[in-house]
Design a protein that fits this description.
alpha+beta; five-stranded mixed beta sheet; two-stranded antiparallel ribbon; 9 strands; 26% helix
Length: 237
């Protein structure tokens, strides 16, 4: 269990459910372990936590956190489920997808955890922990999930990259947009409906430094992926 660092002048401790599994069923008020006063009652407080996630520290305010608090000395005892409240506040603070949204989106796509994990390149156990709330996904993983759910063309790309490992090795400049009646046996995205040609496309090449090859530009719209792409090597200027 991850124990976040909190910032408060009040005394705070954490309940250890393994030390006394019957403690959660004791009647209130309880005796305070600090001052001995029988004035511990369940309470809801607002508490700021300093949480390290994805290599950074974040100051997260948790509202209405269930605790046990002594009315005499203000000793606060965090429950064994406090991490769930901190994680939920962290997801909201960083704008990450909540577990139930990840699960519902996967189900809407008709995919199992194993299938989605294989598509985005993570372990199915990791995806399971994202969905049940045991693990907060990184910001990079969250963006990948959002893109996968929002862009059918990206889902098609992930299918295509399993068949053509050259995809993504270079930045694409020359794009050939296939029409609906064009023969597409050599397309990099097989069995995918034709995509409309964007009104404006970026065609100015970006040259790779020191690679000896010209890098290739992407379509103007990030939601569109070309059915056919030219992989001919270009001479760097």
């Amino acid at each position: 269990m991850r124990i976040p660092v909190w910032s408060s002048s009040a005394h705070t401790r954490r309940i250890d459910p393994m030390a006394n599994p019957k403690s959660s069923r004791r009647a209130f008020p309880r005796a305070c372990v600090c001052c001995g006063s029988k004035s511990v009652q369940p309470s809801l407080i607002d508490r700021e936590f300093d949480v390290k996630h994805d290599g950074r520290h974040h100051h997260v305010m948790v509202r209405d956190l269930p605790v046990e608090q002594c009315a005499s000395c203000k000793e606060v005892t965090l429950g064994s489920d406090s991490d769930e409240y901190v994680d939920a506040a962290l997801r909201e603070h960083l704008g990450l997808l909540p577990p139930e949204r990840i699960r519902s989106n996967r189900i809407l796509l008709g995919m199992t955890q194993v299938q989605l994990a294989e598509q985005i390149g993570c372990a199915s156990e990791t995806l399971s922990r994202w969905e049940n709330g045991a693990l907060v996904q990184s910001r990079g993983a969250d963006r990948l999930l959002r893109a996968y759910f929002a862009m059918p063309s990206l889902r098609a790309f992930f299918v295509a990259v399993e068949q053509d490992r050259q995809l993504g090795s270079f930045v694409v400049t020359g794009v050939h947009w296939a029409s609906g009646d064009q023969h597409t046996s050599g397309a990099v995205l097989p069995n995918v409906e034709p995509l409309p040609k964007p009104a404006r496309a970026q065609s100015a090449p970006l040259h790779a430094r020191g690679s000896g090859r010209a890098m290739r530009s992407v379509p103007a719209s990030p939601s569109e992926y070309p059915r056919l792409a030219k992989y001919n090597d270009a001479t760097a200027a």
